[in-house]
Specification:
By secondary structure, the protein is α/β, with parallel strands linked by helices. It has 9 helices and 10 strands. The protein has one domain (about 5-265): TIM Barrel. Helix content is about 40%, strand content about 20%. It is globular, with a radius of gyration of 18 Å.
Length: about 270
């Protein structure tokens, strides 16, 4: 069964985070996703507030832009959250928007090389390993977490192009497909990801596939459920939906998804 989730867009002010998370859990949604867009809310701070304000909700971060963040810091933050809220966190990493990365002086000449080095190092640190690595971008000298998570949360990679999809299949627990893509493009991307995963990790299973999309709280619930079902049919495990009105009433929107759309999914 496909999991239905909502997205808290960073166009909403931070003070809306907790009321929306509480409303999502009360409406029966299992997941709420947040973005770390420049220069809005911190993905880590936002997700932590949501987890602290709820008791069952799983929070996904999609995505943390790796050029913006030292990998040791990200490992420390993810490990802290995973220990405080075990089993309720999914973390996603990605290239970030290159124009934003350039604005802060963090744009990488080779985003793929950075993402590969970063993902490998982040996994190792979260698993409690001590690392000495000197790659093109990631430099660590005998670095290890004092408090690695007792259970490493799922680590997903955001991907659109074939090389990123291959990297996600090879190195991560799953892939995040951004919104704004046709159903055919989503299906093709998932196939590319799963082919790469089957070659690189044949015993690891298909991994987790998350797809983002958007709709309006004024759309009939049956129509939204039909879209979710179609996306799920392309091979998606979790469909996360944002409000097309980016500054709309998010409490109303998550309640609509949880109480009207979710029951139609079976």
């Amino acid at each position: 069964m496909t999991t239905l989730a909502a997205i808290f867009l960073p166009s909403q002010p931070p003070e809306r985070v907790i009321p929306v998370a509480v409303a999502a859990e009360a409406a029966g949604l299992a997941e709420l996703w947040v973005f770390e867009d420049c220069f809005s809310e911190s993905g880590i701070a936002t997700a932590t507030a949501m987890l602290a304000a709820t008791s069952q909700l799983t929070v996904g971060i999609g995505l943390l832009p790796v050029p913006l963040r030292n990998v040791a810091l990200t490992a420390m933050e993810v490990a802290t959250m995973a220990r405080m809220f075990p089993g309720r966190l999914t973390a996603g990493v990605g290239h970030g928007v290159q124009e934003w990365m350039a604005q802060v002086g963090a744009r990488a000449e080779s985003p793929m090389t950075l993402l590969r080095e970063y993902t490998v190092a982040l996994y190792a640190l979260l698993r409690g390993q001590s690392l000495t690595r000197h790659g093109r971008y990631v430099h660590l000298d005998d670095v290890a977490l004092d408090w690695p998570p007792q259970a490493v949360p799922p680590l997903l990679v955001g991907a659109v192009g074939p090389r990123s999809l291959e990297l996600a299949g090879e190195l991560s627990d799953g892939v995040i497909i951004p919104g704004g893509r046709s159903l055919a493009d989503v299906a093709a991307g998932i196939e590319h990801y799963r082919q790469a995963r089957a070659v690189a990790r044949p015993s690891a299973g298909g991994g987790q596939v998350v797809a983002f999309t958007s709709t309006s709280a004024d759309t009939p619930a049956a129509d939204v459920a039909a879209v979710v079902t179609a996306i799920a049919g392309a091979g998606v495990d979790r469909v996360a939906i944002s409000d097309a009105d980016e500054e709309g009433d998010l409490e109303r929107f998550v309640t609509f998804l949880g109480t009207q759309v979710r029951p139609l999914l079976g």
